[in-house]
Amino acid sequence: MGLLVQVFKWDQRWRVLHRVDILLRRGIKKQAVYPTKLAEVGRLIDARDDRYETGQLFLHRIFGYRGVILFPWTARVYDRDLHNPSKISATSTTTASPTQQQRTKESSLRVKANTSSPPTAATVQSGETPTSAAFQTDAPGEAESTTNVGTATQVDPKEVKGKVQTFYQVLIDTRDCPHIRAQTEAVTFLGNQDSNRSLYAIPGLDYVAHEDIMPYSSSEKSPLQHELFDKFLTHAPEADPPFVGQETLKAWQEKNHPWLDMSDVHKETTENVRITVIPFYMGCRETPASSVYWWRYCIRLENLGELSVQLRERHWRIFSLSGTLETVRGRGVVGQEPILSPRLPAFQYSSHVSLQAPSGHMWGTFRLEREDGYSFDCKIPPFSLESKPDDIGPPTTATSAAHDKKRDDSD
């Protein structure tokens, strides 16, 4: 009997060792297929309180991608948290100033990548790639009700006093685009005026707040991979930063100013989840029967707490100056239900909305579920939809039309 027990124990040990051997072999095989290496991309420099110049290289503080500043924008930020002391105390303890964060970082920036793709920023560790849904309206065909109302004074977004802050138009390194949780086609505009269904996007552009800039320097002449980098910037070793804007960049900015301009930014925090909204006017479609005005809005969700949360539903209210109030509900956003964890705390996306009036308002809530099972509605701060004089033609880029992406807004 004792011998049988001993044989049984040996058999169990052999099976365990066999499983460990399989795991080890799988691990070795995986490393052989996806080996990692470190490569220096530059060195962090001290953050600045004043405005950064065109050509400054940086890492994004939240999403970790490498980028370069094209030009600054001045925006008025309406932060509802500033009028709520409890929200200030909750958020101030979870964030530090850019200068403090810079001092805690090592001076040498190293990135990890596999041999099948170029290096990506070291802070980018997400295995998730956002779906290509940058042009999908938040809920096509999901309007639940449309009713006539008198006014919308109860959702005036300007009831909060705005503060002027600096934002930047930037280029994103295309090597990092697949690894960040933000849509990388953040600039869109209306296309051919003879068509009423086309949207165009310029890939690899983003708007970044001053406090999200982590500047660094590089000795490379072309440290960033983007098809517009060499068309917009030129290497100037004697300059600081050593990249200066070309005439093509200045001409592009002047030509497309109405489509690129950001004027208002809206923020609000609920249950340690901060929502930031930036609306953009895209133009008007004229038809014999009516005029349709289009806007794009960029939304960032950021988890400031210690527990993970997942976005489950959206609930929008869209008020038009024509006197209609539309209610829209749906699952997730742009086909996703992102999880905001302490390791990957933020998610950013863009969508579009149209009105048959030159102005209106949007506001609503996101239904979020915390990892402990608690669900709550996170407020989306009210923001205005304001049109501009449509006295210019469709925008152009410094590249050929083949570099632009075209999508049907009904997708």
From TrEMBL:
Residue stretches of biased makeup (Low complexity): 89-102
Q: Where is the composition biased (Basic and acidic residues)?
A: 402-411
What Pfam families would the database entry show? DUF525 (PF04379)
Q: Where is the composition biased (Polar residues)?
A: 113-135, 144-154
What region holds the ApaG domain?
Answer: 267-392
For the region Disordered, give the residue spans: 85-154, 384-411
Supply the PROSITE patterns for this chain. Answer: APAG
InterPro entries under this entry?
ApaG_domain (IPR007474), ApaG_sf (IPR036767), Hemimethylated_DNA-bd_dom (IPR011722)
PANTHER family found in the cross-reference section: F-BOX ONLY PROTEIN 3, POLYMERASE DELTA-INTERACTING PROTEIN 2
Full protein name: ApaG domain-containing protein
Q: Which organism is it from?
A: Drosophila rhopaloa (Fruit fly)
